[in-house]
From TrEMBL:
Keywords: Chloroplast, Membrane, Plastid, Transmembrane, Transmembrane helix. This is Ycf19. Pfam families: CCB3_YggT. InterPro entries: CCB3/YggT. It comes from the Eukaryota. The chain crosses the membrane at residues 21-43, 63-89. The keyword 4Fe-4S does not apply. One of its GO terms (biological process) is chloroplast fission.
Length: 98
């Protein structure tokens, strides 16, 4: 019988969280890239699914900074926060895991 040690389980949890964050960052970047194309039908799949996954998170940061030249900086704040959480889990979360 092969049992996993606590260290292996924590390593798996840490790496899983980092992978989920990385995938979410990629989805945010895809949505931001697609917003430059006004012809995108956001009410049709797969764009609707992308919008419903990403917009609730980005809406948390709307209004923190006012629009400057009609540019919304909430995605930058959201991406920075995700990267900070990822770095925390990578370097500070259970530091004895390597």
């Amino acid at each position: 019988m092969n049992t996993l040690s606590t260290k292996e389980i924590l390593f798996f949890i840490r790496e899983s969280i980092n992978q989920i964050i990385e995938i979410y960052v990629i989805l945010i970047l895809i949505k931001l890239g697609l917003t430059w194309f006004p012809i995108i039908p956001w009410y049709r799949q797969p764009f609707y699914a992308l919008e419903t996954m990403i917009d609730p998170y980005l809406n948390l940061f709307k209004g923190i900074f006012p629009l400057v030249l009609n540019l919304d900086f909430s995605p930058i704040i959201g991406l920075l926060l995700l990267q900070a959480v990822s770095l925390f889990f990578k370097y500070k979360f259970i530091p004895f895991i390597s």
